[in-house]
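Chapter review: from sequence to fold.
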Amino acid sequence: MSRLIAAELLKLRKRGMTWILLYILIGIMILIHVLTYAFSQRAFPGAPADHTGGLQQILGLPLALPLALLFLASLGAVLATIMTASTTGNEYNWGTIRIALISAESRLRFLAAKLISVAIVVFIGMLIGLATGFLMSLITTAMSGNGFDFSFATRSYFWDQFLQFWRTFYVIAFYSLMGFVFAIIGRSAMPGIAVSIGILFFEPLITTLMRAAGGWVSNVPDYLFSANVNAINALTSVPGMFGGGGGGFGGAAVALPSVQHAYVVLGVYILVFLAAGFYLFRKRDVTG
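The C-alpha cell string follows.
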C-alpha cells in the first residue's frame, strides 16, 4: 500500500495541475489581504462609522489564522475538488487506467492510495495557505501602522485554531469526495469538477428558496449540504461581515442546524460517496 501511495504522491508532484492550484491558492490569499488593506485606507460615502475600524481589525494578527481558515473552507474546497476529480478521472481520460491497475494489488487499494495521497497534498496545501495568510497579516499589520502584539497567542487560542483546522479539513474532504464519486460515475475528470463545483455554488441558492417556501420544504436544507457546512464554519472566530462558509458567505443570516447535526449529516454523505465510488470502481469495466 505504501508503494502505491508513494507512486500517487509522485504523480501529484510531477503534474502541473497540482502546482497551478497551489499558486492560485497562494495568489488569492495574498490578494484578499491586499484588497482588505486597500479598502481599510479609503472612506466610502454612506459607510458605517466603524467601517475602517472593522477592516483594520481584520488586518490584525489575532484574526490572521481564523480568517485564513474561513477562506480555505471555501477556496480550498473548490481547489481540492478540482484536484481530486482530476486525479481520479484523468486516468480514464488519458487511457492509463488499465496499465495502472496492472501494477496495483487490487482496484480498491489503487483507489484508496489515490484518496490518501490527495488527502496528504490537501493537508500540506492547507498549511501553506495558513502560512501565507499569517505572513500577509504580518505585512498588512506593519503597513497599517499597527503594533505587533502577540498577547492573543495563548494555549486556548492555538487549541481553537487546531480544532478549526480539522473542521475545515472535514468540510474540504466532503466536497473533494463529491468530486471523486462523480468523476468515477462519469469516468472523466470533467463530470466530477463540473457537478461538484456547480453544487457548491448553486445549492445555497436552491436552499434559500426552500427556506422561503415555508412548511416542511423549509426543513429540507438541514439535510443537504450548505447549511451543515455553514454550521461548522460558523465556529470560526471572525467578524460577522465574514460569517458563513462553503458555498458563499452570509450563511449566518439564517438559522443553522446544530454542529452535532452538521457533523452527522456530512459524515453520512462522506460514507455514501466513499461506498458508491469504491463499489462502482470495483464492479464496472475500467475503459474510458
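Two observations follow directly from the output. The first strand starts at residue 244 and ends at 245. Residues 2-283 form one domain.
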